[in-house]
Structures are given as C-alpha cells and as structure tokens.
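Attaching the record inline, Q. Sequence:
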Amino acid sequence: MEHKEGTMQYRASAQIGEKLSILGLGCMRFSRNMAETERMILAAVEGGVNYFDTAYIYAGSEETLGNIVSKNRLRSRINIATKLPLVSCKGPESFDRFFNKQLERLRTDYIDFYLMHMITDAAQCRMLLDWGIERWIDEKKREGRIRYAGFSFHGSGVEFQKVLEMSRWEFCQIQYNYSNENYQAGKEGLKAAAAKGLPVIIMEPLLGGRLATGLPAEARKLLAELDPALSPAAWGLRWLWNQPEVTSVLSGMNTVAQMRENIRAAENFAPLSAAEAEAFVAVREILSRAYKINCTGCNYCMPCPQGINIPECFAAYNASFAQGFVTGLQLLLTSSAAMGAKPCGPRTCIRCGKCERHCPQSIAIPSQLQRLSKRLEPLPVRAAVRIARYFLRR
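Structure, as predicted:
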C-alpha cells in the first residue's frame, strides 16, 4: 500500500499480522517530569506510534505508563510490551509472581508483547525451557493474558542463532545501530530472525543517545551536508528503517519535542540513496576512532557499591575522544561528585565485579574504569581537584 505523506508508517511480518509503527517508544528513560511524560505519550499516540516498550526492572516505568494509559483511555490504541526479569527468577514459581505484579502496575489485564528479558545464551534459554516457560506462556495465551511471546537478546551472534531455534518465538528484540553492524546479534541475526518471519524490534538505535547528541563534529558535518534539515537522531533512525527486516525502532524519547521530531522522521522516511548509504560508512569510521567503550547507558551495572556512576564515567571517557579532553574531564568531575562530600570517581573501584556480571554489553568494567582513570584522573588533575575541594569546602 502506498504511504500517504504526513502519516505514520507501519510494518507487519509473516509471523504475526499485527501492523507495528516503525517508530516505537522505549520507556526506560522517562523524564521525571510526569506532566511532560504524559504530553509526550499523548503526542505519540496521536502521531500513530502504537508500540510501547517497558520492563519490570525499569524503575517506575510500568507504573508511569500504566497510569497515563489508563487515565487517558489509550489501552485499545496501543501495544504494550514488557519483560519477565530473568535475572530475578528463581524457578517456575517466579513467573506468575512477576507477571501479576506487571499487570497491576500497567493497570491492564493483558500484555500484547511479552519478552523474556535479556537472554544472553543458549544455556539460559535451556534453563527457561526446563522450567516450563513454554507451557506457562501457552496457558497465559489461552487465558487471553499474553498475545505474543518473544525475547530480548544481549549476547553473542553465535548464541543468538542458537536461541532463535530453541523455542516457538513470535518476535525478538535486539540491539542494533549503524555504529557497529556486527555487535551482538548484528546484521546476521537481524536477517535470520526476519527470514523466520519474526518481527524484529530494535533497541539502542542511537547508542543510548550517543548517536544523537554525542557525534564527533566531523561526523555531524558530513551528515548535515547531505540534508541540513535532518538531525543526527533522524539519520540514525533512517539507517535502520532502510532495512526491510527491521519492524519497529525503539527510541528512548523523554520530551514532546523529541517525540514530534522522530514522528516526522518516521512519516517522511524514504530509502537511502547510494550517496547517503556511503556517508554512513564514513561516519562509522569516524566513530570507531572516537568511541573507546561501547556503553549504552542502560544502567544494568548500577548501583555500584562504591557509588561510582559507571555509565556517566564511560560517557565522559568517550566524550574526551569525540569532543575533546576538557569536555570529557568536565563530565567526569560532574558525574563523580568530585566537589561533593564523598567523591566517587573511577579510582574508588574495588574490582568487586558486581557490575561486570550484569552488563549486557559484556564490558570489562573494572578494567575499563582503570583505563579511564589513567586518562582523565592523572596526577595533575587529582592535585587540582584536591586544591579546589580545599578552598570550596573551607
């Protein structure tokens, strides 16, 4: 069907007939301003966005979404996706406990798209199957409590291919963006899932916002020369939508302005020209020189027992290469409370490993914090901070 300009675009799949908006709302990073969040969700629905992704472990997200959807009577107009927190499951007895709590939080009696959250390998999937997850899902479907069942993935490409074959999945969610086509499930995983007829939902399309606001100047200039009317965020979304295997792209918007900008990008999407596709190759090369730690800011590593704000420290480190040492240092001083009562910079890491065990990106966090400290906390910087603290706290 020909797309009418100024309207949301939708895609369906062979596995399910449901038409999903090519732009979805990732609800992990809601604004603390509840009025703004409500206006943003209303703008999303009015703009045709019909896929809303949350999770049990996204603090306050399910409750916020549920309250706004219920208050504005939006339930019949949207698909709600949420996730079973596998890291907290002790056995099959955990399934109903978490699921019922999610229904309560979301103020609904059914979930449209229910995911097994953060599957990392075939062994974890096998454990779920041994616990009887397929029987449990079938029961919930008969009761009308779950419409479609799938999984979100945070492991290697090899493990993704194995997990894909292990159950009767109806959709999947993967991390994918133009900065690294081969990371985790990658392009091969995308194509494999689509070949099985599964809708593929994309998370971290802008690398935690880094591809929207943190692009190196050289990369921003290159994209602006193609079309100055398009923001870096819109370019990132366009690259994904250019691939027909992509069903819906989750953007973690938290303002009405961001929502409207991305809706316009979705409405006006057209396939990339050869010159535009080539530009992304050049941008990717620029990024590979600029970003040293592939952190998306998901916060799964938090809280740190030492109080280190790990994602913000990594953002500062990357910024020190992409936007200059001084910018990175400023970000680190802010994120580590350098002038506060109890500074918690990367040097305070005790290498307990708690963060590393929970990192979906498999980052060697303690080692990277040490590397970060060598760059942004050299002796002259530490001495200057001590002097500043002395005078500021007199």
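The chain has a mean pLDDT of 92. The chain has two domains: 10-276, 310-392.

More tomorrow.
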